[in-house]
């Protein structure tokens, strides 16, 4: 039998919402997958032709772009950050909704006029996306790459602004920050490795069609 | 100080047996093209920048490795692609040759930047171009030569992915009118099959093109269903004709909006993939060559990149080397070479089959496995 199709799914935020989608696509992972104490990274499913790997969201894109996994589920924020040429994102799964925004301390925001910026110093997990975004509007962004706890950066003087995911805005508020600009809306996408989409079209394309049907049904509901 | 042996990022040495495998792949492809009447041209590694750009209609500015020539004070560029050079030859020194002209080529090309996915900056490109025609017959020949060349090079599990490079422009100019300012953005989104992005850009009319991509037969049926006012009929008929003789020989897919590397192609394009090789191994299609008088000449061709194939172990073959002990009569080794053996002669009495990585050793005039 041919190698199984590997689907990379992210740990964290999106996973909970992704599991019901996988279930509706007829993919049920083995018990160890939902067992938080399990150290396993690779899991079989009820379908011998499909297995799952659970990795960090940013690594989902990397695994799939290199063809180490054929499919993946990942937020559009990650896709924008990497801008990998070998990734297709044929289905908007309609889950994991949030937005990517610029935020700054409340005191700064009161006197700040974004139109006058020429240079900003930003702490973010998304240096490429942030640089591109500001560049497009004629502002040079100096990015400090952090992997978490972005909200601390303005407080401790690491940077005056941050670019981060915002869903309810609660974390920002609790840290004395306000959202000043929305860069983009974010939702989770089904991604496919470009070569796998061609060389394994007979297996991959029906799976993509199935996810498209499921996601489409959600929008209509 | 540069540590000994360190090469610039994206460059590498190929050692035996990979360097041999690479040379073998190139030779097989060129030999196959030669059998179909394609004759070799050999353009230089560097030329004037102005000569390298602008010959093929490209939507995108190319990243070139440039230097100022100390002799002429003009900008030289190292070639990123040999196709444009072949186009230059066809439009200048071979402009008077009867058409179509069939040319083949092989050589290293240089990219300015490497990416994480394609870390090489130097690639071995080999291919063939048919200049003067871009008809269905020409496309069928080029595709067939490409497939045959790969098969002869030992590539198995070939997937041929068809695309229609000028499709979006055709649709935007007819049944699906679009704000020209939006066209580039929509093309990029279609290239990435970014369904969510298309929705955000209000370009949902193009979504069926993303959904159509897949195995050739189904994709063709979906496109025929989508075909508004018959704008695509002739193109789809042409694809069907080109694909017909290849059914069962290679896996066929159709992806109408693929644009990866199809910056200058016109109505027809294809990419090649192989089982066990992670990225694309080659591509081809129709394009136009610009002549000095403003005339545009149709052409069609394909290029293969040997490095991913070599890395996947294709072109490698068993190392059969016969050790000839010190003092053996040269006439005997000559005879044995004529039988097809690779001989490695001991030049000192202390040399051994092991030291020379030989699989066989000559004993009493007979090759014996080590």
Per the principal axes of the C-alpha atoms, what is the gross shape of chain B?
A: globular
**Most extensive interface:** A-B, 28 and 32 residues
* Total number of distinct structural domains of chain A: 2
What overall form of chain A do the CA principal axes indicate?
elongated
DSSP summary: helix tally of chain A = 9
Please write the CATH class name of the largest domain in chain B: Alpha Beta
Protein name (chain B): Histidine--tRNA ligase
Subunit structure (chain B): Homodimer.
GO cellular component, one term (chain B): cytoplasm
InterPro entries (chain B): aa-tRNA-synth_II (IPR006195), aa-tRNA-synth_II/BPL/LPL (IPR045864), HisRS-like_core (IPR041715), HisRS/HisZ (IPR004516)
Give a verbal description of the structure.
Chain B: This is Histidine--tRNA ligase. Chain B: One of its GO terms (cellular component) is cytoplasm. Chain B: GO terms for molecular function: glycosyltransferase activity; histidine-tRNA ligase activity. Chain B: Pfam families: tRNA-synt_His (PF13393). Chain B: Keywords: Glycosyltransferase, Transferase. The complex is a heterodimer of chains A (221) and B (370). Chain A is an alpha/beta fold and 221 residues long. Chain A folds into 2 domains: 5-96 and 187-214, Periplasmic binding protein-like II (D-Maltodextrin-Binding Protein, domain 2), CATH 3.40.190; 98-186, 3-Layer(aba) Sandwich (D-Maltodextrin-Binding Protein, domain 2), CATH 3.40.190.10. Chain A contains 9 helices and 11 strands. Chain A has helices at 15-24, 57-65, 76-82, 106-111, 127-136, 152-155, 170-174, 194-199, 201-220; strands at residues 5-10, 42-44, 50-55, 71-75, 87-92, 98-105, 119-124, 140-145, 161-166, 177-186, 188-193. Chain A has a 6-stranded mixed sheet with strand order 2-3-1-4-11-5, with helices on both faces. In chain A, strand 2 and strand 3 (50-55) form a beta hairpin. In chain A, helix 3 (76-82) packs across helix 5. Chain A starts with a strand and ends with a helix. With 370 residues, chain B is of the alpha+beta class. Chain B is built from 12 helices and 16 strands. Chain B has 3 domains: 18-165 and 259-311, Bira Bifunctional Protein, Domain 2 (BirA Bifunctional Protein, domain 2); 172-241, no CATH class; 321-369. In chain B, a hairpin with a 5-residue loop joins strand 11 and strand 12. The model of chain B has no long low-confidence stretch (mean pLDDT 91). Chain B has helices at residues 18-35, 49-52, 83-91, 136-152, 167-172, 180-191, 195-200, 207-212, 216-226, 233-243, 306-311, 330-338, and strands at residues 39-40, 46-48, 65-68, 75-78, 101-110, 122-131, 158-163, 214-215, 251-254, 265-274, 282-290, 296-305, 322-324, 343-345, 360-363, 366-369. In chain B, helix 4 (136-152) runs parallel beside helix 10. The longest helix of chain B is centred in the first third of the chain and has 18 residues, at 18-35. At the A-B interface, strand 5, helix 8 and helix 9 of A face helix 7, strand 8 and strand 10 of B.
């Amino acid at each position: 039998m041919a190698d199984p199709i590997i689907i990379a799914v992210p740990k964290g935020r999106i996973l909970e919402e992704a599991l019901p989608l996988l279930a509706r696509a007829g993919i049920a992972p083995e018990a160890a997958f939902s067992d938080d104490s399990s150290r396993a990274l690779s899991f079989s499913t009820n379908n011998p032709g499909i297995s799952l790997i659970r990795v960090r969201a940013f690594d989902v894109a990397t695994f799939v772009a290199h063809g180490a996994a054929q499919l993946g589920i990942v937020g559009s924020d990650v896709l924008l950050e990497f801008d990998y040429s070998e990734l297709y994102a044929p289905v908007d799964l309609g889950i994991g909704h949030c937005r990517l925004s610029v935020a700054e301390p409340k005191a700064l925001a009161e006197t700040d006029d974004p139109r006058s910026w020429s240079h900003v110093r930003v702490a973010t997990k998304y240096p490429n996306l942030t640089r591109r975004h500001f560049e497009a509007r004629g502002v040079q962004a100096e990015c400090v790459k952090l992997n978490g706890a972005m909200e601390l950066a303005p407080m401790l003087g690491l940077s005056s602004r941050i670019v981060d995911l915002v869903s309810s805005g609660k974390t920002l508020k609790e840290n004395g920050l306000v959202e000043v600009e929305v860069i983009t809306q974010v939702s989770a996408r089904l991604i496919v490795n470009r070569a796998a989409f061609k060389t394994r079209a007979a297996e991959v394309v029906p799976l993509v069609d199935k996810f498209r049907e499921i996601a489409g049904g959600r929008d209509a509901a | 100080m540069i540590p000994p042996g360190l090469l610039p990022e994206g460059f590498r040495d190929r050692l035996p047996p990979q360097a041999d495998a690479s040379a073998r792949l190139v030779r097989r492809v060129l030999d196959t093209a030669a059998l179909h009447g394609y004759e070799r041209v050999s353009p230089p590694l560097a030329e004037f920048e102005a000569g390298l750009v602008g010959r093929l209609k490209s939507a995108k500015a190319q990243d070139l490795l440039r230097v100022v020539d100390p002799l002429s004070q003009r900008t030289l560029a190292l070639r990123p692609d040999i196709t444009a050079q072949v186009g230059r030859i066809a439009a200048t020194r071979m402009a008077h040759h009867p058409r179509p002209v069939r040319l083949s080529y092989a050589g290293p090309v240089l990219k300015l930047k490497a990416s994480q996915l394609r870390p090489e900056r130097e690639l071995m490109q080999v291919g063939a171009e048919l200049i003067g025609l871009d008809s269905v017959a020409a496309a069928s020949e080029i595709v067939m030569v490409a497939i045959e060349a790969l098969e002869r090079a030992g590539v198995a599990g070939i997937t041929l992915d068809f695309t229609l490079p000028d499709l979006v422009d055709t649709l935007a100019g007819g049944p699906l009118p679009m704000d020209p300012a939006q066209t580039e953005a929509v093309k990029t989104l279609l290239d990435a099959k970014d369904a969510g992005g298309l929705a955000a850009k209000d370009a949902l009319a193009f979504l069926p093109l993303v959904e159509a991509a897949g195995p050739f037969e189904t994709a063709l049926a979906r496109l025929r269903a989508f075909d508004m006012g018959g704008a695509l009929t002739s193109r789809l008929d042409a694809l069907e004709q080109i694909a017909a003789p290849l059914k069962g020989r290679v896996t066929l897919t159709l992806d109408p909006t693929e644009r990866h590397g199809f910056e200058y192609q016109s109505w027809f394009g294809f990419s090649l993939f192989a089982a066990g090789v992670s990225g694309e191994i080659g591509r081809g299609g129709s394009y136009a060559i610009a002549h000095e008088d403003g005339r545009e000449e149709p052409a069609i061709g394909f290029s293969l990149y040997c490095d991913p194939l070599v890395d996947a172990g294709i072109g490698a073959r068993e190392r059969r080397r016969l050790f000839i002990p010190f003092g053996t009569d040269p006439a005997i080794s000559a005879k044995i070479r004529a039988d097809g053996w690779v001989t490695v002669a001991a030049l000192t009495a202390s040399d051994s089959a092991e030291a020379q990585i030989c699989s066989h050793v000559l004993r009493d005039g007979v090759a014996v496995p080590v």
